[in-house]
Amino acid sequence: MPYSSSGSEEEIIMQEYQKYLSEILICEPELKKRIAELGEEISRDYQESKDFLLVCILRGAVNFLTDLSRQITVPHAMDFMAISSYGTGNRSSSGVVRITMDLTTNISSKDVLIVEDIIDSGNTLSYVLDLLSTRKPKSLKVCALLDKSERREVPVPIQYTGFKIPNKFVFGYGLDLDELFRNLPFIGVVDLEKYQALKRPNDS
After folding, report:
1. Which of 79, 120, 176, 191 is labelled catalytic?
2. Tens digits of per-residue pLDDT, 45-78?
3. Are 31 and 163 in contact (CB under 8 A)?
4. CATH of span 28-166
5. From CA 62, how far away is CA 145, in angstroms rounded?
């Protein structure tokens, strides 16, 4: 981690998101409006479903899942998966994907909607889709809050997209900056120069 647990000045600075904010990319009202629209669209598309399941990819999609669920009028269940493909401090996927927490629900014959925070290379989502498709759901679709398509390495289907964003490192609203700032109500862009300058040399 680029900060210590000793209460140092560096740690205090790390907790001030303004130090790392280059710009607000998507403000809170924009998020709420678009999520309401997604909820309406999903509710319409799944109105005949008798067994609808939202699968949240941890940890980044938790905020999105919670707010999206409130906007969906169709009865639905929830389950969670944790997938590892990034390391702390890394800005891009390693390409190696592994499950750190699997579903507890049998998804056979269910309408499954994967809820993701951001899709960039597509490697993680491709892995999840391939895995879940072997469990024979009735349908399997994807809802992503953010689509960073410039970074795509693997083509993946996204049926519901919140926002298409440029190739910038973003944080807030579930997305972390080295596990901090997931609680921010907006999505901001990291000022990488300031961020790197405050990291200890041996963590650079």
Report:
1. 120
2. 999 999 999 999 999 999 999 999 999 999 999 9
3. no
4. 3.40.50.2020
5. 11
